[in-house]
Write a structure and sequence with these properties.
It contains 2 helices and 5 strands; from the N terminus they run ββαββαβ. It is an alpha+beta fold. It has a 5-stranded mixed beta sheet. Strand 3 and strand 4 form a beta hairpin. The chain starts with 8 loop residues before the first strand and ends in a 6-residue tail after the last strand.
Length: about 80
């Protein structure tokens, strides 16, 4: 049976904010080395980064260029 590979980062959009769920240690290390973040941007035990949608695509593009696997979760907040 073929195993489905889990993405390093799972992105979801919530209005003007994007949530980047850091699913692997590789993703956490990449964000620490490549993104200028503040502690208040992290939730869910430090594994979810909140960013303005205007910056999310640039971060995700750079992560893809560096070989990380990126997924997208389609959901809305009521």
């Amino acid at each position: 049976m073929k195993r489905i590979k889990r993405p390093d980062v799972i992105a979801s959009s919530h209005g003007s904010i994007a949530l980047l769920s850091l699913e692997s240690e590789r993703a956490k290390k990449w964000i620490a080395e490549n993104a200028d973040t503040e502690p208040w941007q992290f939730g869910a035990g430090g594994t979810t980064l909140s960013v303005d949608n205007r910056y999310a695509l640039a971060l995700l593009d750079a992560a893809l260029e560096d070989g990380l696997d990126v997924g997208y979760r389609s959901e809305s907040i009521s």
